[in-house]
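Batch manifest line 288
LIGAND: protoporphyrin IX containing FE
JOB: complex structure
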Amino acid sequence: MTLRADPLMSDPPWAGPPGFGIGLRRIDPAGWLEGGEARPWARKDALLKRVPRRVWGEVEGSRPGQAEAAALVAGALGIRLPGEDLPPLLWAARRVPDDLVLMESREGDWTATALSLCAGSFFTADQALGRSLEALHHPVPGFANDLLLRVRRIFDNLPAGAVVERRNWTVTAQGDLHAPEAAAARALAARRRPDGSGRGFFVRCERQTLRRLPETGGVLFTIRIHLRPLQALAAEPPALAAFGQAWAAAPADFRRYKGLAAVAPGVEAFLSANPPETAARPSQGAFP
Ligand code: HEM
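JOB STATUS: finished
ARTIFACT:
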């Protein structure tokens, strides 16, 4: 039997330029939805039952956009649209591992008009629903000065049929996909023993994609979380080398925003026990 290499380790998001960035690259539409989770609805339905407002929301008037997004997902999966009585975006989200966010222009501002968010990284559906790009990114240092205009332009100009992808990374002591609260993750980190094993720490990466909905004019934003134990890096020398570089190169505002101080003792003990070799840093593709 051949073991498949872990794509996250062979092409790690932390190998991109340090700090906050757009980091979008065009991908082959055939690779839009990665799949790989047998029963995403089981995980999502449990959360929907337990904490409905934290994982699902829609505003009035979003159903046409939701229906177009659901049709896009159904087409990619090769399945038929439902006769079910669920909101269409929720129907689609139950079939894929990804979280789905419908972004639509409302009063001239790109706004989250419906979302299924079961693996939100330190935010929840009720916090995001109805928010504009600017409000969503309020906590991100420098976003309003530099990135906001560029992101708005991308939303305005994304061509139909194109799929673009961006990825990010952080380290956390929270090993669950559903991680709504940064404070809880930081409290967990404070309780971990930095013994050099990396045990109890995880690299948490988001793979995000954007697709235009040509009929209703919206954009479907997908978010897929990949979590790996920090320990896994010890068996992946190039990924470990790139991680060591990214960790050392992370700017102060990035470290503060991601709360890396909370995990630093554990990560630094792990890097001392598993010293990375130095590696060249590949550059990320640019869009448009
Ligand atoms: C081109 C599209 C986008 C770009 C370039 C972008 C960029 C960023 C960046 C740089 C961050 C900081 C963390 C990181 O490194 O990823 C961030 C955080 C975030 N983004 Fe985006 N983003 C985009 C689209 C969206 C959309 C459509 C949503 C809608 C839900 C969204 C919601 C958020 C939220 C909630 C955060 C966390 C803010 C917090 O800390 O509370 N982003 N984004």
